[in-house]
């Protein structure tokens, strides 16, 4: 089982002294696209106003541009420790026991606008690039990534649970992947799409899937696992699941 996570715009700073090695990342066949994007970001960082426009950041976020300028030389961290925010706080891999962390490292991956696909243990620097960013001289990131990334994602073995947000899922599909929608249910039985807490629920779901000793191999087995864990999960047909949570 592989759980494919969205990235986050916020990143932990720092790391160790090992610089970025694109050829050492998962799916080295993506190295060409990764190199093009990294070099584009490094060059773009020399023009701060253009970087702000392309990346959708404000003057107060110029440190994000400085991070991009240093992509080739900056310190790196395992990807699963680099990303921060609500989902990753709920996932909280740093609190896992050694055995659970080993399972999480083997089962978690991140869909990235800069790297395409990174495993939990792939070492990456802090950077700023979102799926909706428009880089000068390049087509949309979807057009850049889809030809190279689609066959990589299509070849992923076993059950894939795709928790990516819409903009990242649009970069390239994972055929046959299980998707999860989170709905909140009010006392009167009416439901609504969870917005603010969606990432927290998906983070807790990812933690469960990353650390369980079970190995579901299809959507039915996954639904059974989640229900045994006390979650209200509905199978909507095909490979779509709905996680129903109480309204708050």
Automatic annotation (TrEMBL):
Pfam families per the record? H2O2_YaaD
Question: GO annotations under biological process?
Answer: response to hydroperoxide
GO CC list: cytosol
Specify the superkingdom.
Bacteria
Would you tell me the protein name for this molecule? Answer: Peroxide stress protein YaaA
Organism for this UniProt entry? Blastococcus aurantiacus
